[in-house]
Amino acid sequence: MGPAEGSIAERLSALAELKNKGLIRHIGLSNVTPTQFTEGRKLTDIVCVQNLYNVAHRHDDAFIDDLAKKGVAYVPFFPLGGFTPLQAKELDAAAAEVKSSPMQVALAWLLHRSPNILLIPGTSSAEHLRENLKAAELHLPKKVVAELNAIAKAGAAAAHAH
User: CA gyration radius for the chain?
Assistant: First the structure.
């Protein structure tokens, strides 16, 4: 599910050509590494990157910070965990502390994480959409953010132990 190394020049060149002809306004990349982004940026302007990222899967932390400095949007896919929704005692505790659902807290954490993060969480109902939108209004105290940041560290430590 993560990006694979390798050149993207051939595929991206075709899109850059269409952009130069005025048939495409903006180009974004999905499932790319920082190296591939740099390669792509030499061919054409890149306005956003979409990779797997959420409170538990934090492999792109440095990449997000670099993109923010460059004014490039970052769209995390599976912001709520995807086919296996995020579950962590820290997430449940944070939700209880701010009187919200764990999923609202996970979305709020992403919005808090960096100003260049744009969210497109999936939804199956208008009620679910309203719940997701409330995440934008949640204030997460620094203590809660620190507890949520620990989720990825705990997961990484468990992965290395196996």
Answer: 17
Strand partners, 74: 49, 117
Give the DSSP letter string of 109-148. HHHHH-TTB------SSHHHHHHHHHGGG----HHHHHHH
Rounded Cα–Cα distance for residues 125 and 38 (Å): 38
pLDDT tens string 30-65: 999 999 999 999 999 999 999 999 998 999 999 999
Please, are residues 66 and 34 in contact by the beta-carbon 8 Å criterion? yes
Edge-to-edge, what's the strand order for the sheet holding 73-77? 28-30, 48-52, 73-77
Give the count of domains, the chain: 1
20-34: average pLDDT: 96
**Residue 143: both structure tokens together:** 């203590």
Task: Check which CATH number belongs to the domain holding 74 and give it.
Answer: 3.20.20.100
**Hey, what are 81's tokens?**
């965990």
In a domain, 69, yes or no: yes
What are 121's two structure tokens? 């969480």
Contact 23, 52 (CB under 8 A): no
**144 is in which domain, residue-wise?**
47-157
* CA-closest candidate to residue 28, choices 14, 44, 42, 17: 44
